[in-house]
């Protein structure tokens, strides 16, 4: 009797240890699929998407060809939206006229604008959804370490990574300067988009809360109704207020018993009106 129990305990302890070595179920359950192959002599350096729940666009920077390309997810078609293939530069402007200088790290603002590091240019560029390129911070072509607004700030030409925050600021890892920099976008449209995104989150949460309260109240009401039915059925005297007319004169008017026929021993009260 004792031996099988001991064996079972050992078995359980052993399986517990084995389970502890395996990562939690699902965390590392992944499949890998190639969706795109880089165009000739190019690179896929960094990728980003717009901030929609179901992104419409995938962006990829190509530091070798000096461009940022955009893929329309629904059609699968790639288009160069910033820079000119194979030509380095720092010119701002719309699609087809702008130039980039080894674009690497990217992220998307709450407005779905693209923030792009011009790694060889030592500056940070902004690409709007329709491909308008402007210089956000730093002086393209000048390296340095200086804080300030827009073009008065300077960066090293080895910015390694950036991340766009939900509050319209951008964190920048300025590697050669050994500094973490932060860009605060002063764009009312971005703030509005950020607020909207936050509001969506809170609306979803408060809808859950409202739903929960409604469900609780409904459950309570159902419980009260069922409870009062049971009381009536059990022969308890249940009075129901009837003929409420409002006003000061309508004092203590009580109607007949509920289901009076089922309670023959108790005569109904005379109605007070008339
Ligand atoms: C956004 O959040 C970061 C990190 O908390 C903060 O440093 C930055 O000042 C914030 N930006 C704005 C515009 O509030």
UniProtKB/TrEMBL annotation:
InterPro entries: 6-blade_b-propeller_TolB-like
Region feature (Disordered): 247-274
Gene3D superfamilies for the chain: TolB, C-terminal domain (2.120.10.30)
Signal peptide: 1-20
Keywords: Membrane, Signal, Transmembrane, Transmembrane helix
Ranges of Pro residues composition bias in the record: 265-274
Record-annotated membrane-spanning stretches: 207-226
Protein name in the entry: NHL domain-containing
Lineage, broadest ranks: Eukaryota, Viridiplantae, Chlorophyta, core chlorophytes, Trebouxiophyceae
